[in-house]
Structure prediction request, 107 residues.
Amino acid sequence: MKVSGQGLVDRAPRDPEGEVANQHERLVSAMEALPELLRRVLWHAEAMGEPPSRIAALTGLAPQSVPALLVRARTSLREAHATMSEPVTWASMNSQDRASHEQGPAR
Prediction:
């Protein structure tokens, strides 16, 4: 079976407002806002699919403390993500804001 890159692009969902990119930026910023230990525990659990015993070995934590830290990390990530303001994008600006941006600073 041959996969054509063009066919994938044709079937890819459109994101004219850049919402996917905005959500990605907010998620990255929220992850960066977490303390290092919570970030590491969350990364190994969610991105790498590591079990708590492996996370404990990688981080030097007691195995029984990993599940509680995961709950704390997920809660902290959710809170950090929720408190971030929506990034300003070209698509989110109204026409008046766009016009003033295009004209540059007032002299």
